[in-house]
Amino acid sequence: MADEALASTGVTLRPAGAQDAVAGVRPRWVALPESTEEVAALLRVAAERDLAVVPVGGGTKLDWGPPPERCDLLVDLCCLSEVVEHVAGDLVLRVQAGITLETLRDRLAIAGQELALDVPVPGTTVGGLLATALAGPRRFRYGTARDLLIGITVVLADGTVARSGGKVVKNVAGYDLGKLFTGSYGTLGVITEANFRLHPLPPERRWVTAEYGTDVRRGRELRREFPVDPGPLLQELAASQAEPTAIELDWADSGDVYTLSVLVEGAAAEERAEAVRAIMTGAELGDKPPAWWGRLPEHVTLAEIRVPPGVAGQAVREVAGADLPGRRLRGSAGAGVFHLGLRDGAGVTGIRARLAPLGGRVTVLAGPDGGADRWGPIGALGLMRRVKERFDPDRRMSPGRFAGGI
Amino acid sequence: MIATLAQRLKAVLPDQAVITDPVRLRTYECDGLTYHRATPGVVVLPESAEEIAAVVRLCQEFQVPFVARGSGTGLSGGALPRSDGVLIVTSRMRRILDIDLPNRRAVVEPGVTNLAITEAVRDAGYYYAPDPSSQQICSIGGNVAENSGGAHCLKYGFTVNHVLALELVTPDGDIVELTELDDGYDLLGAFIGSEGTLGIATKITVRLSRAPETVTTLLAAFATIEGGGTAVSSIIGAGIVPAAIEMMDALAIEAAEAAVRCEYPAGAGAVLIVELDGPTAEVARQFAAVERICREAGSFEIRVAASAEERAAIWRGRKSAFAAVGRISPAYIVQDGVVPRTALPEVLAGIDRLQEEFGIRVANVFHAGDGNLHPLVLFDDAEPGQGERAETVSGRILDLCIEHGGSITGEHGVGVDKSRYMPRMFTDDDLATMQLVRCAFDPGYLSNPGKIFPTPRLCGEVPRVRKGPHPHEAELF
Amino acid sequence: MDAELIKDCVHCGFCLPTCPTYVLWGEEMDSPRGRIHLMDQHVQGTPLTPEMAGHFDACLGCMACVTACPSGVRYDRLIELTRAEVEREHVRQPQERAIRGIVFALFPYPRRLRLLKLPIRLGSRMKTFLTRVHPSLGAMAELTPPPARRVRLPRRVAARGPHRATVGLLTGCVQGEFFPGVNTATARVLAMEGCDVVIPKDQGCCGALSLHSGYDGRKFAKRVIAAFERAGVDTVVVNAAGCGAAMKEYAELLADEPEWAARAAAFKVRDLAEFLVELGPVAKRHPLELTVAYHDACHLAHAQGVRAQPRELLRGIPGLSIREVAESSICCGSAGTYNLFQPEPARELGDRKAARVRDTGADLLVSANPGCTLQITAAMRRAGEQPIPVAHTAQVLDASLLGRRVVA
Question: What is the DSSP string of A359-400?
Fold first, then answer.
């Protein structure tokens, strides 16, 4: 029996409950391994017994994305939550995948350092962050998880433990498996450890925030749209030599204003923030972010919009022009990545069509897709399928959870 | 076979783009690393992605390996040709196709040099951030293959952090596009740094960065390398991330002096170049701190560049250091290893011990901020046995790097030169897993074979047959 | 060939982007690194094949690679030695031999050149026909400027104001015959800056044309040295970049003849701009409201390292502003006799340079080498446009010192 075989690994095992469902699919068992070796032992058994496996961290995004084609074993990484190595003088960190970013933040703050990623979902673990490649406001300056990840340990479908990268920032030895696993939604294997480059905690932070009106009356109709293309302002902010770290926009359908908030951090933040304020009419300067900063918009369906940064303003206007009652748009206007909260998935197809001419992509991250494909177009799907086939020939790792049905 | 292939190549390329004359072929026998040489079977100089695709398809048809080469400046033999294969040289694909400032990006062909991008956008206040020392000649295609860094990657990252999209010819001869906007696996990130083993980049979209408001460059001279090392640790410890921190030891200074008369302070046992850039107000504060730290660490002379010319003068010695060593030694090996910054003192002491043990001189040039060492192992190839001893010292230095948790290459790549060191850094499983990626892209093992991995993995068919139809395959009945 | 000189090359490739033929064709064997590799093959025993010779012939000898090389490879010396080797070993096609014969029997001899100016000029009307006979003849015809009135310079021009130096002036073959105005301007500028200028009648050709093409230039060198020794000058000032570059190497050229080696070592040569900056300005500069583009002649910028001085002199003229020409380190394709022997690449490079010069939008191009002037002007004419006026640094300075307009 498969459960006996799993139990023989010595890993803590329990039967799955309704709360363990992965996008509605209930696994049979939940395993709670405490080391990379235990994960490997579990996956070896899974390979022998043809069990489908889904890894989980904080479980905050388990209902995201399409349901798995099948799911027997949920590998819960909650017990792999150690900081394995933190050498402050090297600004380098090695952690297990199950540690939450909040815990990590507190640990690193003691040394005056941080992992410069702000993930917009509380309770996210390092593994979950990597698997979904979700990023917050400071992506504008620091990039996303892939840009700060310097090494990774994974367990493949057959139980093979593999590492790539290392614990030095500069390293080009071998293929970068970390890139491949970042954003792979658990379809290539289980991430058990990750190494990151860190940054010193900035001595000062300032937010420059301004609200801009949006209501326009067209004939008898009241329409919510951007009377002025925010593009030029965004361009000016992005090119500002005050070097802001983040340029965020927030706009609720119900409100008649949208908010732009710009973060300036580091030495002389105050003076630089003043330079940013000079660009933004009517802006206020403070040392606290707006309440919505770094959080996902409320949603039933959550979509991610990605556009080339130069057309971010146009993209916002396109969203404004689409008929999407109750939508809330928020995101990194400087980087051209927004999150769109919707009441349902009905408007996805329409917004996708509007953004396509701008070179934009729309992905449904969570919630009902309204019949639309969750994923945008993929240039190299053939190659991706071949990668999946090599890593997981039996399609047992989160099958069907990823782009192109991978 | 190669002769027949050459005939077929002439049918898909213009005559003068196919080189078969033996004397001409030999000029392509090595890249920037002359230690390994092989005369290519045929050299082609295509001018478009379609031409490259046609060449690759012919290679598939003849089951002949192919190797891509840009400017031939690589230092790990990554572009070492195959005598039984085709060398695909991209030096004629050097058009800048588009400069798109609102989207902060440029689209270029692979043969465009790194510096040419910056030169094209400098007047508009932008630049391309990665800056390998060979930036005036190394090609962007080569940078993509090697994931090149440069002196400023401490703050700004590597090629992989600055490439937004790629068009590539796969080892099957298909032209595909990878962009950061697309969903799916980050194949863009996996391809960059794959040293030509996953295909050939034919169009590259790079990020353009806004030129910083202020750049301040400081040169601090120390009596000893330890003094410089202390300063580096203190700068990082103070929470400052400079754009670059470079260090050279006395021997490297001597070489640079002989080559370009950089006029670094006399009597320096080490010089540190620290460059800060960014908003003027930020740089001013950080600069004051850096200057104080250097003095406290015992710097006996600090120079600050007051103009672009003076900045270039400070950098000239550093940027020319590799080739400059040719002035003080008949032959030398340029090594490239990485150690955690905190292990630098121990590793440098270890290198000193190796110098004594083997009677071989080593000049040290390194990116101190990120622990990337470039020991230059000097020897006289006319002296019997010296070459072998230098080779041993060079390998031992890599061992030191691995022992201290570092890497065998920070930016030059593995190529053919270091593939034998890969098993010291990675397990068989690690390497086999990496090769899964290769098998997905190049199951026939024709794209730059023999590089990176010490032993090829035979890919064969996909290991096990998938059960049932692919969920996205159309049901026909 | 010198195997040791070849060994200095570490194959780094820094020379590639500065090499005009690499810029044109993107081929390894048409780059300095590739040519050194070919030289090495030859030294190792590979016979000199026609392909090899072709790649050596295609080198312009602009020496931009020498400037770029961090390892200090003496490519200048290497290519000179190689060219001599090519002349010894390689049998050229009869037609090519004939053309080379004409050029080397003609250009180094001012008197012969003078006699032939008219026929060449007539020939320019028959350019199409001549090109058909041999491209080099067509190139020759295309390059020739309209005839200039011959100017007889005095043997001695006395310093104006307090005497500061006694200098000799090399008049040059092509400079003297095609651009006599440059020599008069040079003499005047030197005099106005307080120099007694001696211009020996029997100075002859400096030998540059032959030397840079692999022919023996020693007899020319000895004659020049002797002539200026007799003139009793401190320094010989040269206003043609190619001549200056060759003359600065006399000591190396004559190293095997002890007596001459010593005389060559004592022979002090300076480019005009170099000399004037060392001397320091004294004469009053009158304003010139002009925007000029400064063209770096290879034999000045690369072979002699004179880049800053001409710009400094130009900047010293009130009202004058300088624009830099993009790709300034890439040769215009003139390169001594190159545009005669390799007309096609020379033409391509000329077109490229002309376009870059045009992009500057300058009123006047300043070029310190007669070959470049001929080449760039011809390229502009070919493009069907009014060529930008070209003047030598000396002429611009002369105008400023005299308070007159520049006459190019």
Answer: T-EEEEEES--TTS-SS---TTHHHHHHHHHHH-TT--BSTT
Residue type, C180: P
Q: Across the interface, which of C10, C13, C16 has its CB nearest the CB of B326?
A: C10
**Taking 80 as the threshold, does the pLDDT of residue C137 lie above it?**
no
> What are the tokens at C25?
């064709």
Which of C108 and A246 is assigned the larger pLDDT? A246
Nearest to A397 by CA among A121, A159, A116, A93: A159
Helix (H) or strand (E) holding B213: none
Question: pLDDT tens digits for B70-80?
Answer: 999 999 999 99
For C180, the token pair is 């006599």
Of residues B425, B462, B471, nearest to A405 (C-beta) = B471
Residue B389 lies in a domain: yes
CB contact (8 A) between residue C10 and residue B34: yes
Q: How many residues does chain C have?
A: 408
Q: Please state, in angstroms and rounded to a whole number, the distance separating the CA atoms of residues A324 and A321.
A: 9
Q: Which chains touch B (3 or more CB pairs under 8 A)?
A: A, C
Provide the 3-class DSSP secondary structure of residue A62. coil
Give me the total of CB pairs closer than 8 Å, taking one residue from chain B and one from chain C: 83
pLDDT tens digits for range C155-188: 999 999 999 999 999 988 777 777 888 999 999 9
Rounded CA separation C29/C27 (Å):
6
The answer to whether A310 faces chain B, any CB pair under 8 Å, is: yes
A-chain CB neighbours of B471 within 8 Å are: 69, 400, 405
Q: Which domain holds residue B455?
A: 426-477
The CATH class for the domain spanning C285-402 reads alpha beta
The position carrying tokens 């990337």 is: B372
Residue A282 contacts B where some CB pair is shorter than 8 Å: no
Give CA angle at B445 (B79, B41), nearest 5°.
50
How far apart CA A54 and CA C225 sit, in angstroms, is 89
A405 in reach of chain B (CB within 8 A): yes
Q: Within a 13 Å sphere around the CA of A57, how many CA atoms are in the beta-carbon half?
A: 27
Provide, as residue numbers in chain C, all residues whose Cβ is less than 8 Å from the Cβ of B134. 12-14
Instruction: Encode pLDDT of A208-261 as tens digits.
Output: 999 887 655 555 554 445 555 788 899 999 999 999 999 999 988 766 788 999
Kindly state whether B260 is in contact with chain C, defined as any CB-CB distance less than 8 angstroms. yes
What is the per-residue pLDDT for C149? 67
pLDDT tens, residue by residue, A161-214: 999 999 999 999 999 999 999 999 999 999 999 999 999 999 999 999 998 876
Last residue of a domain, one of B89, B114, B141: B89
Least Cα separation, residue C124 to chain B (angstroms): 32
Please identify, among B322, B355, B386, the residue that sits at the C-terminal boundary of a domain: B322
Strand C235-238 versus strand C269-271 pairing type: parallel
Please state the rounded mean pLDDT for residues A29-35: 97
Which chains have 3+ CB pairs within 8 A of A?
A: B
Tell me where in chain C the CATH 3.40.50.11810 domain(s) lie.
285-402
Residue C110: predicted pLDDT: 61
Residue B12 and residue B68 in one domain? yes
Cβ-based contacts of B91 with chain C (< 8 Å): 22, 26-28
Q: Which H helix or E strand runs over A48? A: helix A36-49
Residues whose CB falls within 8 Å of the CB of residue B131, separated by 6 or more in sequence, listed in order: B114, B150, B151, B152
Number of folded domains that form chain B: 5
Q: Does C have 3 or more CB contacts under 8 Å with A?
A: no
pLDDT of residue A29: 97
Mean pLDDT over residues C208-212, rounded? 76
Question: CATH homologous superfamily of domain C3-89?
Answer: Alpha-helical ferredoxin (1.10.1060.10)
What lies within 8 Å, CB to CB, of B312 at 6+ separation is: none
- B382 CB burial (10 A radius; 0-12, 13-18, 19+): exposed
